[in-house]
């Protein structure tokens, strides 16, 4: 069945889109974070200079490979690089010079202007988990992800107050052919949510489909003049830029759409086993990648990224929420700020198989470091489980709840007269209590961050309620959210045009499952 | 009883203690943390000055109460304060001036010199949970704590590599009379561990017993010249210093032993509902408390403390690991550094009833803020559950494992030639991998922090092993540790003298259970 057929069949009865518009309820979303607190500067000037100098040495002496990409090689040759086969050696300073045309911040528009985000500067935009082929929930356990799961995660993201972005591949809809699923995924982001989203990068043609669908959603002219997608371009570390990812980057850059240019590194495997060595390689890779984006189109918006985990040298398993990953995240943040570029990293990381204590520790470690390291775009901020193999329903709402703490921390500490509370201290005096005083009455509603998931009940009340752990509490919340979901309003003609595009594209090619 | 008499009596016997000495196995303990990374300075100069000025205003205009303590009032009057009944109003600047004789750092000796800690400066000493009347483990659930539990937690603390301190009331041994349990607790710390520990504060006479027992353990002269206990003196916020706590403080100060002078604050109840207001009150309280310690004995070692939680304004329940508590922790750290005093806060905080995801998030939030806020002495670093009502066996080893990440983070990022890894990057080149390269072989053993609890297995192996969550994995670890425990060597005569002191003291008074 195609999406178009469904639309046609329902049009007579009033139409789902129109019904959605009539009953539209807008769920509250917090504005993206503007930090009012300092970043933690982990490396000193000398260390940063060593890393930057070594990165340039890598580019000049070792170089990077642009695989299967004669166009890229030609651009590099023209720019003054030394091209030898697929190896591109970039003279010291050239890549950095080319990066200068990349904007230090940019706006990614959402179809609902209230959800539009500014990426860069002191801002932090939070986006959900990306990429898992499996899902997990308390009732159904671990299983392959389907399109229904995908739509559910988009709905949860839309309803999550502290999540600014709908993300991209919130899970892999494995029941849809590989060459068609990007169409359904984009359609879901565009119609089930009104937050900004990411485009497809699994083939340059799918990146083009993403641009085409955005032109339907936003209008052709608007897309050419504004950024409406921020997509994830992974570098094949070490030092390799493959044609699929670069092909997608080229589509996005030519269309003025943003790319996150992000090495994908398991430390000790795709980069040296040391933090400084990894930082050096990351720096070389993003310098080359961002420079290339600017060769494709000067001024194309980019984000300097890093996806870095450690490795458990016993088992070879990747590890998450570790101190070394945090050190690298802090370091790349400093390097990005020195480049004057927006910075992407990851939060909500864990290697755990369940949303248990391990998941809590590792995710909180990642979320805290993301805030303190000056990240501008945090991918995987909620829902990530089992090293990225699993999108967890419960962990999605647990993490999304914790994202509220980042907002509060980032706001800093007010010291105005009301915050100083000297009248309250005078009123209460030694030995009194503040519960009933005027200052408390006036301020208590907004004074403290409040969880929507965690349990603060007294033991007896908690035990009577079933002695539920966090996963069980989150499971209830997931069910309630999905039951309460209401689709955001969308112009029926636009929705129909998008559905038609998807149907036509799907009809134009045979199914592929790998 | 004197040290000498005890020695003489025990010299003849063979005894368990000598057997323990013969079979002694020493478990590895990491040296206390010396930070090689910056602190996060959350407040700017202007905000800090407002808080400091307001704190002095509180002391001058509102004052503090020293309850049931004519001696303290006399000392304050003599020092130039305005004493009116139990109210002590301290002229602007006086408390701060008095605080100047407190040392900026001090050494707390352990009976094993390798475990001696330096408290202050850029150091961080980690100590376990303090105070819970209940314990919890996976098999036995939640129950009143007993002396056996207490001994078990001392054993676990002794065996925990990343824990520097044996702590104090690791749980309340509720099966021992209230007026005698401090003796058994101290005996356990002194004989089952060789790490530094805390003294009793529940009655001045019990503080004196603590000093007496230390004189047996360390020698009378040594105790008078060195600090061998760091004990927890809570201020009865707001602005009240009760006679029990102050009586204990007086005993410790006179004997050159360290006190943590720490307001106990549930924000919105014992302090204003705002962060800046709470910081102001904390500052006033510790200024008064530390000044008083210096009136008792100039140069007495102290730690500026803060125990701060928020409150859930719906239920009135205290909350842990929240952003407001973190903001206060960062702020007090800055105030302490400006005073030139060691700083105590708390890690491992959670309101959860189980060592589940909530416990993980909240504890990791607390541990991270403790490191980044410049804490010198972190109490409750492991084992805390249910808002401090419960010492959790599993959470003890889970948290203690996470403390390893603080060590690694604090070490900073080396950028020496080996860390730069340029040879490795040259050797591997674009498209290669680092698993087998020389640099990885030479460095992998120490490159990454390694957990002793968390699970990194592939899903299938984990499922085959019973699909255990973190609590279940930790439970196995607890059992193994307690089974593997070996008592550290102790001079049999000393152990016997301590036992004799405890027996004699217990025999000298009737049991009291409240």
Structure characterization notes:
2 copies of one chain form a homodimer. In chain A, strands 1, 7, 10, 12, 13, 14, 15, 16 and 17 form a 9-stranded mixed beta sheet that branches. A 4-stranded mixed beta sheet of chain A has the order 3-4-2-11. Chain A has 514 residues and is an alpha/beta fold. The longest helix of chain A has 22 residues, at 275-296. The first copy, chain A, has 20 helices and 19 strands. In chain A, helix 12 packs parallel to helix 13 (357-372) and helix 14 crosses helix 19. Among the domains of chain A are: 100-410, TIM Barrel, CATH 3.20.20; 417-447, no CATH class. In chain A, 60% of the residues are buried. Helix content of chain A is 46%, strand content 14%. Chains A and B meet through helix 3, helix 11, strand 15, helix 12 and helix 13 of A and helix 3, helix 11, strand 15, helix 12 and helix 13 of B. Chains A, B: Keywords: Methyltransferase, Transferase. Chains A, B: Belongs to the trimethylamine methyltransferase family. Chains A, B: It is an enzyme of class 2 (transferase).
């Amino acid at each position: 069945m195609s999406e178009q057929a469904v639309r046609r069949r329902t049009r007579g009865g009033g139409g789902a889109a129109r019904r959605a518009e009539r009953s539209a309820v807008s769920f509250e979303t917090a504005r993206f974070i503007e930090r009012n607190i300092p970043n933690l500067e982990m490396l000193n000037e000398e260390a940063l200079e060593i890393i930057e100098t070594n990165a340039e040495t890598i580019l000049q002496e070792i170089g990077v490979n642009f695989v299967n990409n004669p166009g890229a090689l030609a651009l590099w040759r023209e720019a003054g690089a030394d091209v030898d086969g697929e190896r591109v050696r970039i003279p010291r300073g050239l890549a950095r010079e080319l990066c200068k045309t990349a904007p230090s911040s940019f706006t990614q528009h959402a179809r609902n202007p209230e959800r539009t985000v500014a990426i860069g500067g002191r801002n932090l935009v939070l986006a959900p988990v990306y990429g898992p082929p499996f899902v997990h929930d308390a009732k159904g356990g671990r299983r392959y992800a389907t399109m229904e799961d995908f739509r559910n995660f988009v709905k949860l993201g839309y309803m999550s107050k502290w999540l600014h972005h709908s993300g991209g591949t919130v899970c892999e809809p494995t029941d849809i052919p590989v060459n068609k699923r990007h169409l359904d995924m984009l359609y879901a982001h565009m119609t089930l949510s009104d937050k900004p989203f990411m485009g497809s990068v699994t083939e340059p043609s799918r990146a083009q489909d993403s641009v085409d669908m955005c032109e339907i959603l936003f209008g052709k002219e608007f897309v050419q003049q504004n950024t409406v997608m921020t997509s994830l371009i992974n570098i094949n570390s070490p030092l390799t830029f493959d044609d699929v990812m670069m092909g997608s980057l080229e589509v996005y850059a030519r269309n003025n759409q943003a790319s996150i240019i992000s090495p994908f590194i398991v430390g000790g495997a795709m980069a040296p086993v040391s933090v400084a060595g990894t930082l050096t390689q990351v720096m070389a890779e993003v310098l080359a990648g961002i420079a290339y984006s600017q060769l494709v189109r000067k001024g194309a918006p980019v984000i300097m990224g890093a996806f870095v985990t450690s490795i458990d040298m016993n088992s070879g398993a990747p590890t998450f929420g570790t101190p070394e990953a945090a050190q690298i995240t802090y370091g790349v943040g400093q390097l990005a700020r020195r480049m004057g570029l927006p910075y992407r990293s990851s939060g909500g990381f864990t290697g755990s198989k369940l949303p248990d204590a391990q998941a809590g520790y590792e995710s909180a470690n990642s979320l805290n470091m993301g805030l303190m390291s000056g990240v501008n775009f945090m991918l995987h901020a909620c829902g990530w489980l089992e090293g990225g193999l699993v999108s967890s329903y419960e962990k999605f709402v647990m993490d999304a709840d914790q994202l509220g703490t980042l907002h509060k921390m980032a706001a800093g500490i007010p010291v105005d007269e009301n915050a100083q509370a000297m009248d309250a201290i005078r009123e209460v005096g030694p030995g009194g209590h503040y519960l009933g005083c005027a200052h408390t009455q006036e301020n208590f509603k907004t004074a403290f961050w409040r969880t929507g998931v965690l349990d603060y009940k007294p033991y007896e009340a908690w035990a009577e309620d079933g002695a539920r752990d966090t996963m069980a509490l989150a499971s209830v919340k997931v069910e309630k959210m999905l039951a309460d979901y209401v689709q955001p309003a969308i112009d029926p003609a636009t929705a129909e045009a998008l559905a038609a595009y998807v149907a036509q594209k799907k009809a134009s090619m045979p199914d592929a499952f790998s």
